[in-house]
Design a protein that fits this description.
The complex is a heterodimer of chains A (98) and B (382). Chain A has 98 residues and is mainly β. Chain A contains one helix and seven strands, in the order E-E-H-E-E-E-E-E. Classes of the chains: A mainly beta (98), B alpha+beta (382).
Chain lengths: 98, 382
């Protein structure tokens, strides 16, 4: 679906998505890294459970909500990746306390 | 052009909020022709700013009859929810598994205990089955309470509902019953010719055999037009709303509840300010602080909305239901608890209006005659 440009020579950053290692690039947002990973990165919405992907990529639509380093409902499109970051696809509502 | 515009209705209901809507829906259910005259979207509308509790405990201190009226409403709510769902397909998510009022620290626990005792000792009050519970007993029902919670009171009649969907369901019901809803029609004058009321609105005159004033705080100005009295004393409240989270709060509280869709509402401030367009952040701060001391996990949730709303509030805090002696067929209904009492309004008050007379054994205590000529002071009866 998405393919990295051959002109993109940024250094690699390793993150983990639901425990699996994923190669991202320095400067990627979490949402960009998820979309580029080739994995099924659909979250499920909080009320109806509909599957969704990041949409606006600029902090407006909230369709990129994801759990990052144990904190739920983060906007993946606004958070840059960091080495060793733990990302979990959020299925439904955020859990209380994380 | 609306179907019956300019024609004659059995009843004109002035006010299309939760109270007027419940009465109008109830009248439509009884086969009456009804016109609902409402303000527009910018009306200061408690029906869209409320906390959505169907609440019994602590209501009625100072007026024992209100305890019975409230318990009756709580018990009639399942019938209302079922009727709305059957008619409109909308589930109003009524949950009535009992509610808590939590206390922080020993002083608050002692004060609440005294309130429960005073409620029990009122002559003529309905039995609430409201009881004090220790922190360890509360924790069995609400496992996520924090260490500062000293206990609280519990009442098995308490519950909550999706009040916005209830409001929508009433209006969907209007269509099914053939009720005519007129927005942007604030009533500026009411006169009576022979057996007919004539209501002046910006969109023309509406004529009806009976009239019900259900316009919230505006009832104070409307009531004298038909020989009635409705002293009001509105207050402002603020509400803080968090993002949706997995269900963690199995019972509603007086100040915190989790909606059917997962948001957490934090509320119950009370101010004399009557501007609903600005928030006082120190008040939201105190509410949020108390909420997270009750449930420490809340501290991690993001706040997504916050608003101020104007409460409809009769001057002494208790409902007013009255009928005009000078103008038979004119009724007034005012109350703060439009959600809790919606079932009584839809079934009881609508039946009384349709029959032409209030039933003293049910609502006699709520006549505005209790205010005398001077009016009474607000003792926060709600």
């Amino acid at each position: 679906m998405f393919r990295r440009s051959e002109l993109d020579h940024r250094p690699s950053v390793q993150i983990f998505v639901d425990g699996a290692a994923v190669a991202a690039r320095e400067g990627d947002t979490v949402s960009a890294a998820l979309l580029a990973s080739g994995r099924d990165v659909r979250r499920l919405t909080a009320v109806s459970g509909a599957p969704r992907l990041p949409y606006c990529m600029m902090g407006v639509c909230f369709d990129c909500l994801v759990t990052i380093d144990g904190v739920g409902n983060r906007q993946g499109c606004l958070v840059p990746v960091a080495e060793g970051m733990q990302v979990e696809l959020q299925k439904g509502k955020r859990e209380i306390g994380r | 052009m609306p179907r019956k515009y300019g024609g004659e209705y059995d009843v004109a209901v002035v006010g299309g909020g939760l109270l007027g809507s419940a009465i109008a829906w109830g009248l439509g259910r009884l086969g009456k022709t009804v016109a609902v005259l409402d303000e527009g979207d910018i009306a200061k509308r408690a029906s869209r700013a409320n906390f959505a509790l169907v609440w019994v405990q602590s209501k009625g201190l100072g007026m024992p009859a209100y305890t019975g009226w409230t318990v009756r409403a709580s018990q009639a709510w399942p019938k209302l929810a079922a009727a709305l769902q059957q008619q409109t397909g909308l589930d109003v998510c009524l949950q009535q598994n009992g509610g808590f009022h939590l206390t922080l620290g020993d002083d608050e626990f002692a004060q609440r205990g005294q309130l429960v005792t005073r409620m029990h000792n009122q002559v003529g009050a309905a039995d609430y089955r409201m009881e004090m519970m220790s922190a360890s007993d509360v924790k069995k029902a609400l496992p996520l309470i924090g260490p500062e919670v000293s206990g609280g009171s519990f009442c098995p009649f308490d519950g909550h509902v999706n009040s916005l969907r209830t409001f929508r369901a009433f209006h969907a019901g209007f269509k099914a019953f053939g009720i005519d809803y007129f927005p942007e029609r604030p009533v500026s004058a009411i006169t009576r010719n022979d057996s007919e009321f004539r209501l002046t609105t910006p969109g023309g005159e509406i004529r009806s055999e009976k009239v019900v004033l259900a316009a919230g705080n505006a009832n104070q100005a409307l009531a004298p037009m038909v020989g009635l009295f409705a002293p009001m004393g509105p207050t402002r409240g603020q509400i803080v709303v968090t993002e949706r989270t997995m269900p963690f709060l199995p019972h509603p509280l007086t100040t915190i509840r989790q909606t059917d869709e997962g948001t957490v509402m934090i509320g119950d401030s009370k101010e004399d300010e009557l501007d609903d367009r600005v928030l006082k952040h120190p008040i939201s701060g105190v509410m949020a602080d108390r909420a997270q001391r009750m449930f420490p996990h809340l501290a991690r949730l993001n706040v997504v909305r916050s608003w101020a709303g104007i409460r409809v509030m009769p001057q002494d805090g208790f409902p007013i239901y009255d009928q005009s002696e000078a103008h038979p067929g004119a009724f007034v209904a005012c109350c703060h608890s439009g959600v809790t009492l919606a079932s009584n309004h839809a079934f009881d008050v609508a039946r009384m209006v349709a029959g032409g007379a209030l039933e003293p054994e049910l609502v006699g205590a709520f006549s505005a005659s209790r205010f005398g000529c001077e009016g009474a002071t607000n003792n926060s009866g709600y």
